[in-house]
Amino acid sequence: MKPIAEMTFEEALKELEQVVGQLETGTVELEKSIDFYDRGALLKKHCEAKLAQAQARIEQITMAENGTPNGTAPFDAQ
Question: pTM of the prediction?
Answer without folding.
Answer: 0.73
